């Protein structure tokens, strides 16, 4: 209104010439103002309507957001855990989704469907993996049990059977081997390789035993020839012959030791019982340090022929071991006494006491538990032989501390190895071997010689002990139709020569002249000769050979 009044006043005061123009301008201004007002009013109204619509949209969006939040919370807290539980229980995804309230939002429905599908696949894989794990665990348990049975039962049994001589096919067929290829194939390869190794070892042992048997036969033949030379030659070579005899006896002990370890047998066998005193002297005669051995025998019992050589070898090994591991100036004492359980032989030395480990190995050796030749040391073969002989004849061998400061060995010969004495020895006479008959009269008795010392006396320091040997008598050799002589098996050249001389003497072909008197020799030779003449005249066995195990001079 104020603007209209101002416009009217302006037209009134305007000059007449410009009053028309002023009025027109005023009307135009009013028209523009009216248009502006109308336009603004319309714009305000439109803005108000748009704001109202946007408020409704915001409210609707807020309502939808609240509903979506509620559905998400329900989906996360209720729907998805329920679906997962049903799927873990084995329900399929479709069945699990059919029992839930689906959200109104399609994205949430798609999310629930995807979740159910993935969980179903995960559960399926988990079940498959668990099944495989259980199968693998069961297979591992079975394999472990088979492996334990393979190591504890099957392989030791296979090794034992293969060493007894069974073939690889027999062992593989008789034993229940593992079904698992990872164990069965290596086990079969092991058995076949071990069988080949055992065959090679058996062949090597057989070849060694065969070669040693030839050496044994040569040693026995040399001993027989030396004994014949001792009978034929005079005093000047008698001491040397005894030394050769003793060296050959040691060689025989060594070859017998190796032969027994190789599965062979001793070089000599006896067909009649041998008294214990002769057994002891025969054992002493086979070791190098015989001069340090002191025998104390208080029994006249005899060992049966089949076990005499084994007992003699066993005692020789123990005496040799005691002499080797004691000071060279100390004595080795051997005590023999008869008990109700059998013959007890105690061997004591004065050496250092054996350490616990060495004592344990020695006890295992003499008990026969060390049968693997690969585990034996080259210088410890004697005790392994003792163990084999002890197991073979049922002899008990035990170690204990010696009262002399060293180590003692107690050997128990059971009653089944002893021979029954049919006739007791006459009172006041010297003991003779129980199984040897009264000596036959000699053809040409030599001058009497001093009797040998009692068994408990030490072996003479200069004289070598004679071996315990009782060669069987051989009948005269037969002849072929062409007149050629035939040698009996086992007879040596010396025995054949002696029989020829005996037959020549019976036929009257001998010259009958006495042997020319030999020049005087040193004192040792005289002593050997005196013993030699006494042995020939007073200790000749019925078969023409010396009695087993003569006493040392």
TrEMBL record:
GO terms for biological process: phosphorelay signal transduction system. Residues 424-435, 459-477 have a biased composition (Low complexity). One of its GO terms (molecular function) is protein histidine kinase activity. It is an enzyme of class 2 (transferase). Its EC number is 2.7.13.3. Residues 306-417 form the Histidine kinase/HSP90-like ATPase domain. The keyword Secreted does not apply. Residues 496-506, 514-525 have a biased composition (Basic and acidic residues). It holds the Pfam family HATPase_c. GO terms for cellular component: plasma membrane. SUPFAM superfamilies: ATPase domain of HSP90 chaperone/DNA topoisomerase II/histidine kinase. It comes from the Bacteria. Gene3D superfamilies: Histidine kinase-like ATPase, C-terminal domain. InterPro entries: HATPase_C_sf (IPR036890), HATPase_dom (IPR003594), TCS_sensor_his_kinase (IPR050428). Residues 422-553 are annotated as: Disordered. Signal peptide: none annotated. Keywords: Kinase, Membrane, Phosphoprotein, Transferase, Transmembrane, Transmembrane helix. It catalyses: ATP + protein L-histidine = ADP + protein N-phospho-L-histidine. PANTHER family: SENSOR HISTIDINE KINASE TRCS (PTHR45436:SF5), SENSOR HISTIDINE KINASE YKOH (PTHR45436). This is histidine kinase. It comes from Streptomyces griseoviridis.
